[in-house]
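Researcher: Let's do a round of design. I'm pasting the structure tokens now; please hold your answer until I've finished.
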């Protein structure tokens, strides 16, 4: 990393209680992100499907898997891993944590796992 590049400060998203449990909530950041809360565990990930560009927070949640409302691409919310009938690059995920009842996230995405980078294609 360049010695001139500064780390971006964490982003406060508000009180944990303002995020419903097991319902993805879109936040209008740049890029748009989705927040998914399971008790005290929170997942933050990009809110655009890498295959079709659809808004993932409008998709269907089954346990830890979120299915895109447009083309049924499925993603594991904890890791961003692509599953299901279409395989795409993983979702960008972000580190999230709680401090004094407030939810924060890192504005820099976690690095993707190289082994999981695949082009969007139908599974056979």
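Researcher: That's everything. Go ahead.
Model: Designed sequence:
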């Amino acid at each position: 990393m360049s010695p001139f590049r500064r780390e971006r400060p964490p982003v406060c998203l508000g009180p944990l209680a303002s995020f419903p449990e097991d319902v993805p909530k879109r936040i209008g950041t740049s890029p748009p992100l989705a927040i998914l809360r399971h008790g005290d565990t929170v997942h933050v990930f990009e809110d655009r499907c890498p295959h079709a560009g659809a808004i993932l927070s409008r998709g269907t949640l089954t346990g830890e898997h979120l299915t895109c409302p447009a083309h049924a691409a499925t993603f594991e919310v904890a890791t961003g891993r692509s599953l299901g009938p279409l395989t795409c690059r993983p979702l960008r995920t972000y580190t999230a944590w709680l401090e004094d009842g407030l939810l924060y996230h890192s504005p820099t995405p976690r690095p993707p796992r190289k082994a999981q980078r695949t082009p969007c294609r139908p599974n056979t």
